[in-house]
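Justification of resources, computational component.

The compute hours requested in this renewal are based largely on the per-chain cost of generating structure records like the one below. Each record pairs the submitted sequence with a full C-alpha coordinate output. That output is archived, and it is also reused by downstream analysis tasks.
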Amino acid sequence: MLAEVHKQKRVEWARKHLNDRWDRTLFTDETAFQLFRNTVERWYKGKRPVRRIPKDRTKIMAWGGFCAKGKTSLFCFKQIMNAEFYVEILRTHAPEISQMLGSRWRFQQDNDPKHTSRLAKAFIEENFPQVLEWPSNSPDLNPIENLWSIIKSKVEKRMPKNLDDLENFMIEEWENIPESVLINFSYSMRRRCELIIENNGERIPY
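The structure output for this chain reads:
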Protein backbone atom coordinates (compact mmCIF):
# COMPACT_ATOMS: atom_id res chain seq x y z
CA MET A 1 0.00 0.00 0.00
CA LEU A 2 1.31 3.41 -0.94
CA ALA A 3 1.72 6.08 1.72
CA GLU A 4 -0.15 9.33 1.16
CA VAL A 5 3.09 11.20 0.58
CA HIS A 6 3.99 8.78 -2.22
CA LYS A 7 0.55 9.13 -3.80
CA GLN A 8 0.84 12.90 -3.75
CA LYS A 9 4.30 12.83 -5.33
CA ARG A 10 3.08 10.44 -8.02
CA VAL A 11 0.25 12.81 -8.92
CA GLU A 12 2.62 15.78 -9.00
CA TRP A 13 5.00 13.83 -11.22
CA ALA A 14 2.22 12.72 -13.57
CA ARG A 15 0.92 16.26 -13.97
CA LYS A 16 4.40 17.56 -14.66
CA HIS A 17 5.15 14.96 -17.33
CA LEU A 18 1.71 14.38 -18.83
CA ASN A 19 2.54 16.13 -22.10
CA ASP A 20 6.15 14.99 -22.42
CA ARG A 21 7.52 13.53 -25.64
CA TRP A 22 8.18 9.94 -24.68
CA ASP A 23 9.80 8.70 -27.89
CA ARG A 24 13.30 9.72 -26.77
CA THR A 25 13.14 8.43 -23.20
CA LEU A 26 15.28 5.35 -22.54
CA PHE A 27 13.53 3.16 -19.94
CA THR A 28 15.97 0.93 -18.05
CA ASP A 29 16.00 -1.63 -15.27
CA GLU A 30 17.38 -4.97 -14.22
CA THR A 31 15.45 -8.14 -13.44
CA ALA A 32 15.99 -11.81 -12.52
CA PHE A 33 15.20 -14.77 -14.74
CA GLN A 34 14.68 -17.99 -12.78
CA LEU A 35 15.61 -21.45 -14.00
CA PHE A 36 12.76 -23.91 -13.37
CA ARG A 37 10.22 -21.37 -12.17
CA ASN A 38 7.54 -24.06 -11.86
CA THR A 39 7.06 -25.79 -8.52
CA VAL A 40 6.62 -29.26 -7.11
CA GLU A 41 4.06 -30.39 -4.56
CA ARG A 42 5.15 -31.90 -1.30
CA TRP A 43 2.65 -33.74 0.88
CA TYR A 44 2.88 -34.00 4.65
CA LYS A 45 1.28 -36.58 6.92
CA GLY A 46 -1.97 -35.68 8.56
CA LYS A 47 -4.13 -32.80 7.47
CA ARG A 48 -1.48 -30.19 6.94
CA PRO A 49 -1.89 -28.30 3.66
CA VAL A 50 0.26 -28.93 0.61
CA ARG A 51 3.29 -26.67 0.44
CA ARG A 52 4.61 -25.64 -2.95
CA ILE A 53 8.39 -25.55 -3.02
CA PRO A 54 10.46 -24.14 -5.89
CA LYS A 55 12.45 -26.79 -7.74
CA ASP A 56 15.44 -24.54 -8.27
CA ARG A 57 16.24 -20.97 -7.34
CA THR A 58 19.11 -20.67 -9.80
CA LYS A 59 18.83 -17.42 -11.71
CA ILE A 60 20.48 -15.04 -14.15
CA MET A 61 20.15 -11.29 -13.82
CA ALA A 62 19.66 -9.02 -16.81
CA TRP A 63 19.90 -5.29 -17.46
CA GLY A 64 18.41 -3.63 -20.49
CA GLY A 65 16.94 -0.43 -21.83
CA PHE A 66 14.49 0.47 -24.56
CA CYS A 67 12.77 3.43 -26.18
CA ALA A 68 10.46 3.98 -29.13
CA LYS A 69 13.47 3.97 -31.44
CA GLY A 70 15.00 0.69 -30.36
CA LYS A 71 16.68 -1.12 -27.47
CA THR A 72 20.08 -1.77 -25.99
CA SER A 73 21.70 -5.17 -26.10
CA LEU A 74 20.75 -7.31 -23.11
CA PHE A 75 23.43 -7.51 -20.42
CA CYS A 76 23.32 -10.80 -18.48
CA PHE A 77 25.18 -11.39 -15.23
CA LYS A 78 25.22 -13.65 -12.17
CA GLN A 79 27.17 -11.63 -9.63
CA ILE A 80 25.63 -9.30 -7.08
CA MET A 81 25.26 -5.80 -8.45
CA ASN A 82 26.78 -2.87 -6.59
CA ALA A 83 27.24 0.75 -7.61
CA GLU A 84 30.60 0.10 -9.27
CA PHE A 85 29.24 -2.76 -11.35
CA TYR A 86 26.17 -0.74 -12.31
CA VAL A 87 28.38 2.06 -13.62
CA GLU A 88 30.38 -0.47 -15.66
CA ILE A 89 27.14 -1.68 -17.26
CA LEU A 90 26.21 1.88 -18.18
CA ARG A 91 29.72 2.57 -19.46
CA THR A 92 29.57 -0.54 -21.65
CA HIS A 93 26.25 0.47 -23.19
CA ALA A 94 26.80 4.22 -23.49
CA PRO A 95 28.22 4.04 -27.06
CA GLU A 96 25.31 2.02 -28.46
CA ILE A 97 22.80 4.27 -26.70
CA SER A 98 24.45 7.33 -28.20
CA GLN A 99 24.44 5.72 -31.64
CA MET A 100 20.73 4.90 -31.30
CA LEU A 101 19.53 8.22 -29.85
CA GLY A 102 22.18 10.80 -30.64
CA SER A 103 22.57 13.68 -28.22
CA ARG A 104 18.92 14.46 -27.46
CA TRP A 105 17.43 11.84 -25.20
CA ARG A 106 16.48 11.21 -21.60
CA PHE A 107 17.64 8.47 -19.25
CA GLN A 108 15.19 6.77 -16.90
CA GLN A 109 16.00 4.57 -13.92
CA ASP A 110 14.26 3.80 -10.65
CA ASN A 111 15.47 4.86 -7.22
CA ASP A 112 17.41 1.75 -6.30
CA PRO A 113 20.31 2.84 -4.05
CA LYS A 114 22.82 1.50 -6.59
CA HIS A 115 21.28 3.74 -9.24
CA THR A 116 21.30 6.84 -7.07
CA SER A 117 24.74 6.37 -5.52
CA ARG A 118 27.23 9.21 -5.84
CA LEU A 119 29.31 7.12 -8.21
CA ALA A 120 26.37 6.39 -10.52
CA LYS A 121 25.10 9.97 -10.39
CA ALA A 122 28.51 11.32 -11.35
CA PHE A 123 28.78 8.99 -14.35
CA ILE A 124 25.23 9.67 -15.54
CA GLU A 125 25.54 13.43 -15.23
CA GLU A 126 28.79 13.39 -17.18
CA ASN A 127 27.74 11.00 -19.93
CA PHE A 128 23.97 11.25 -20.42
CA PRO A 129 22.29 14.46 -21.66
CA GLN A 130 19.26 14.39 -19.36
CA VAL A 131 17.90 12.29 -16.49
CA LEU A 132 14.21 11.79 -15.81
CA GLU A 133 13.51 12.00 -12.09
CA TRP A 134 11.37 9.06 -11.00
CA PRO A 135 8.75 8.80 -8.23
CA SER A 136 9.45 6.25 -5.50
CA ASN A 137 7.55 2.96 -5.35
CA SER A 138 6.34 3.23 -8.94
CA PRO A 139 7.11 0.08 -10.95
CA ASP A 140 3.62 0.39 -12.44
CA LEU A 141 4.79 3.52 -14.22
CA ASN A 142 7.79 1.89 -15.89
CA PRO A 143 6.90 0.18 -19.19
CA ILE A 144 10.05 -1.92 -19.09
CA GLU A 145 8.31 -3.99 -16.41
CA ASN A 146 5.75 -4.98 -19.05
CA LEU A 147 8.54 -5.83 -21.45
CA TRP A 148 10.22 -8.05 -18.87
CA SER A 149 6.92 -9.84 -18.30
CA ILE A 150 6.57 -10.67 -22.00
CA ILE A 151 10.14 -11.93 -22.29
CA LYS A 152 9.93 -14.06 -19.13
CA SER A 153 6.75 -15.70 -20.41
CA LYS A 154 8.39 -16.53 -23.75
CA VAL A 155 11.55 -17.85 -22.10
CA GLU A 156 9.58 -20.02 -19.68
CA LYS A 157 7.59 -21.59 -22.53
CA ARG A 158 10.86 -22.72 -24.11
CA MET A 159 11.67 -24.70 -20.93
CA PRO A 160 15.42 -24.01 -20.57
CA LYS A 161 17.21 -27.03 -19.13
CA ASN A 162 20.27 -25.27 -17.75
CA LEU A 163 21.79 -21.84 -17.24
CA ASP A 164 23.30 -21.76 -20.73
CA ASP A 165 19.87 -22.39 -22.24
CA LEU A 166 18.35 -19.78 -19.99
CA GLU A 167 20.83 -17.07 -20.98
CA ASN A 168 20.60 -17.89 -24.68
CA PHE A 169 16.80 -17.81 -24.61
CA MET A 170 16.81 -14.53 -22.67
CA ILE A 171 18.98 -12.87 -25.29
CA GLU A 172 17.05 -14.34 -28.22
CA GLU A 173 13.65 -13.28 -26.90
CA TRP A 174 14.96 -9.80 -26.07
CA GLU A 175 16.28 -9.43 -29.61
CA ASN A 176 13.00 -10.70 -31.08
CA ILE A 177 10.76 -8.10 -29.44
CA PRO A 178 9.05 -6.24 -32.33
CA GLU A 179 9.60 -2.52 -32.75
CA SER A 180 5.83 -2.02 -32.54
CA VAL A 181 5.86 -3.28 -28.94
CA LEU A 182 8.60 -0.82 -28.00
CA ILE A 183 6.66 2.04 -29.60
CA ASN A 184 3.38 1.10 -27.91
CA PHE A 185 4.99 0.76 -24.49
CA SER A 186 6.82 4.07 -24.86
CA TYR A 187 3.69 5.95 -25.82
CA SER A 188 1.68 4.28 -23.05
CA MET A 189 3.31 6.77 -20.69
CA ARG A 190 0.73 9.45 -21.36
CA ARG A 191 -2.09 7.08 -20.42
CA ARG A 192 -0.19 5.97 -17.33
CA CYS A 193 0.12 9.60 -16.25
CA GLU A 194 -3.59 10.16 -16.85
CA LEU A 195 -4.49 7.13 -14.74
CA ILE A 196 -2.22 8.22 -11.90
CA ILE A 197 -4.00 11.58 -11.83
CA GLU A 198 -7.48 10.04 -12.12
CA ASN A 199 -6.74 7.57 -9.31
CA ASN A 200 -5.20 10.15 -6.98
CA GLY A 201 -1.80 8.50 -7.03
CA GLU A 202 -2.95 4.93 -6.39
CA ARG A 203 -1.36 2.07 -8.28
CA ILE A 204 -2.58 1.64 -11.84
CA PRO A 205 -3.38 -1.56 -13.79
CA TYR A 206 -0.24 -1.82 -15.88
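The chain has one domain: 15-198. The radius of gyration is 19 Å.
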